[in-house]
Amino acid sequence: MLSVKNLFVAYGQSEALHGISFDAANKETVAIMGRNGMGKTTLFKSLMGVLPTRSGSVTVAGQEISQDESFRRVAKGIAYVPQGRMIFPTLTVEENIQTGLENAKHRKIPEEIYALFPVLWDMRARKGGNLSGGQQQQLAIARALVTNPKVLLLDEPTEGIQPSIIKDIAKALNEIRKMREITIIVSEQVLSFALEVADRLFVIEGGRLVHETARADTDIAQIKQYLSV
Ligand SMILES: Nc1ncnc2c1ncn2[C@@H]1O[C@H](COP(=O)(O)OP(=O)(O)O)[C@@H](O)[C@H]1O
Ligand SMILES: [Mg+2]
Description:
By secondary structure, the protein is α/β, with parallel strands linked by helices. It has a single domain, classed as 3-Layer(aba) Sandwich (Rossmann fold). It contains 9 helices and 10 strands. Adenosine-5'-diphosphate binds next to strand 2 and helix 1.
């Protein structure tokens, strides 16, 4: 469903991703684990077209997207929940979700969204800025989901979120993959969360994927070693 081949990305003269390659299947969840500064956000921004790709290929369901503008990538089936959520604080919860429906035929929010995140129904008239971090994260996921993506990218969704809500988010991601034909790519530093949601785990270090493991075969000590400073 998602295929990334030999992706190189640079900030000016400074190369940040040095040839990233991986595939992810339909209904598969893949976690990209790595410490701060290792290239997770750069990878996701380049997959979304927020950062230009220097070279390499990215396909979604067989369609090349690496030279497209972001809105075209969304139309081809990729959606993004950025690090730090980036919801609109002065819009209501409902309006925030509707920003994901801008190019849709109907502005009505599908019921399944509120079924996944009941708290968003309760809060639908509140301003996004008045929600807790965990509620904002659920809102950002809802906004991405209404575009009906084939591939959903989540950049450190558990960052700064309390443990009980982290569990809710893991549950929601596992529900989403049951309900839909979707591939989920999540970047993380929290190993317990990654093990709850991901079929496979990668480790990114210095802009390169340096380790890959299936969930069942995960050497927890080894991954913790990668994640420790
Ligand atoms: N806007 C930028 N300009 C220059 N270098 C950047 C910029 N953003 C990130 N970098 C560098 O790219 C590397 C990867 O950063 P990033 O993708 O944000 O890592 P992560 O998300 O894993 O914490 C780091 O060395 C970081 O300093
Ligand atoms: Mg980051």
